[in-house]
Design goal:
The chain is mainly alpha-helical and 110 residues long. Helix content is 85%, strand content 0%. The chain contains 4 helices and no strands. Helix 1 packs across helix 3. The longest helix has 41 residues.
């Protein structure tokens, strides 16, 4: 009975994490593509020129360039890089906590 309860808790937590991850991905897609659209309109270039950059090129080259053309750009740039820092640290903490929780629940059954 205890093992079934442990599996149910892990399954529920997994569903919550996956749902939040999907929502974050969709929200980030809207944010990134609207920013790329703004940048292409502002600089009179096509979106195809910016669609080649992905991953680190998008995060550290294209997106900061778009932020530099927006009003109050220093504020938004600071917020953007603080967000990247928080996402990186949060991912590390979540990974360590999930492994730690799994170990605690598996060894508490003994």
């Amino acid at each position: 009975k205890r093992l079934f309860s442990c599996i149910t808790i892990v399954y529920r937590q997994m569903c919550i994490v996956v749902s939040c991850d999907c929502f974050t991905g969709v929200f980030a897609g809207f944010a990134v593509f609207s920013t790329i659209g703004f940048l292409s309109k502002e600089l009179n270039k096509t979106v195809a020129e910016y669609s080649d950059s992905s991953g680190p090129g998008l995060a550290f080259i294209t997106y900061p360039e778009a932020l530099s053309h927006m009003p109050a750009s220093p504020f938004f740039s600071i917020i953007f890089f603080l967000m990247l820092l928080a996402l990186g640290l949060g991912s590390q903490v979540d990974f360590l906590l999930s492994v730690n929780d799994l170990q605690i629940e598996m060894f508490s059954l003994l």
